[in-house]
Amino acid sequence: MRILLDTCTFIWLALPQGKLSPIATKSLNNPSYDLFLSDVSVWEIALKNAAGKLDLPSDPRSWLPSRAAFFQLKTLRIQHEHFYRSGELYDLRPDPFDRLIAAQAIEGGMTILSPDRSFSELGASRLW
Fold first, then answer.
1. What is the CATH number of the domain that holds 64?
2. Which of 30, 75, 103, 125 has the CB geometry, 3.0–4.6 Å to 85, for a possible disulfide?
3. How many domains are contained in the chain?
């Protein structure tokens, strides 16, 4: 299975807060699953950190790659198809980060690991 981590899931994995569900923990620890972190999440984390809405232990430029490497996450790059698909999704959620993550999951046949039910309502497969 190909698993795309939602931004909050990555943060809860990298900065343990006891918020991961049992299903999320089992999925993250399953060696047969391919785990992905989207460029969308990198962008969202960098912006939230710069705005003072997210306190990271170090600069996102060094912290993010080190945490992604530690957890053996593959990078999911943004493609033009993801932008097109995000514009075609039902307008339930105007958040461009969530729309792009949902579009990437749909286009890539991935399952999003997230507590956010709106991903399912946007048409993406979701586990939590």
1. 3.40.50.1010
2. 103
3. 1
Report pTM: 0.93
The Cα–Cα gap between 71 and 82 comes to 25
CA distance 31 to 73: 12
Show the domain range for 100: 2-127
Q: How many C-beta atoms surround the C-beta of residue 116 within 10 A?
A: 20
β strands within 1-122, DSSP E: 2-5, 34-38, 74-76, 111-113
What's the gap between Cα 64 and its chain centre?
Answer: 13
Rounded to whole angstroms, the Cα distance separating 110 from 36 reads 9
Quick check: 108 and 85 in contact, CB under 8 A?
no
pLDDT at 92 over 70: no
Average pLDDT of the residues of the chain: 95
> Is 101 within 8 Å of 62 (Cβ atoms)?
no
pLDDT at residue 7 above 70?
yes
